[in-house]
Amino acid sequence: MERKIEIVQMNEEQYEASIALSQFAFQYVKSSEEIQRTKEQYRIEPAIRWAALVDGQLAAQATVLELHTYIGGSKFAMGGVAGVATWPEYRRQGLVARLLVHTLEEMRNRGQSVSFLHPFAFAFYRKFGWETYTEYKSYTIRTDQLPARQAIPGRIERVSIDDSVHTIGQLYETYASKYNGTLARTDLWWEYRVNKRKPGQTAVYYDAQNSPQGYIRYEVKNSQMTVHEFVHLNEEARNALWSFIAQHDSMIERVSITVPSDDLLPFLLDNPRIQHETIPYFMARIVDAAAFVEQYHFDEDDCEDQIAITIKDEHAPWNNGSYMLTIEKSGKASLVSYGSPTPNNGNGSIELGIGTLTTLLLGYVSTLQLYQYGRVQGEESIIKRLQKRIPERTTYLADFF
Fold first, then answer.
1. pTM, to two decimals
2. Which part of the chain is the N-acetyltransferase domain (predicted)?
């Protein structure tokens, strides 16, 4: 007997079934009180939740959070894919694949030109066009290895997050906009995500002019300080915050902290041999290539560039095909389809997959590196032209979903 499979949008009536699947799949248990509190978040948080029903029963689910991310200093509408789960009896039957393809169509319809997710397996999501776009460094530092305390011109003030959320929020947004792939946080995101996942103390650094220049969120437990967020707008603030951390040396044995991949703390230390590792983190995928390029800011140049580009995208047919990428002197660009095959316009052409295009434009891997690894095909001179126009920015994400 043939089964009936449907992809439907969930609502609050499916909350109990959804939370049961999530608890099973992600191996956590919530109390009845926690379930009720989470239900409020389920109702209020901007998101579209999708279910794969088999003969009317919930078999798999996925959520698309309605978020914005900074790319080149601008905010892009982003679909955050989260909570992808399947009951064991329905696994390996293509249900998640159907959900992912459906979410791509819906994200495109809603103007979300890019999507992020945290993978349970990088190889699995790579098949559907997502690609690694960011990593972070994790340090564990003994107190005798901490940066030396310095005299600072301003002051450190421990604050209540509720009373200082505006100040901290502004500091975060200024800091986040310097990277590619950070979240633009809303008040709801601070309330439901940041404050719950990153407990403890908050300390703000004010310079000599009483202007806030940075903050840390941290907790001290079992002789260890865990720094959840370390946000600084300049070197003075960075030094001040590390000096503040070092003031805890009598009550801790070590400090654990995660930082962007461009952080150079070991280089600045007298003894750089601290425990540290680089950890691949989130994946990204361009949902609508033409819409993404239209909003993207390439570097300025003395002349216009026209590059014939073929994009391979098996799961989003609106991206799959051949295009002319036109980059104006100002950095404004367009991606116009001209069908297939690639025309012989004398300017040369390149070919790449949608995941490769994503990680390239976000700046995680350079065009020339991707060319060397065989992820971009084409004439090296054309690839160098494209590389010249892509802004250099570090990718980072301080959040989780």
1. 0.95
2. 5-153
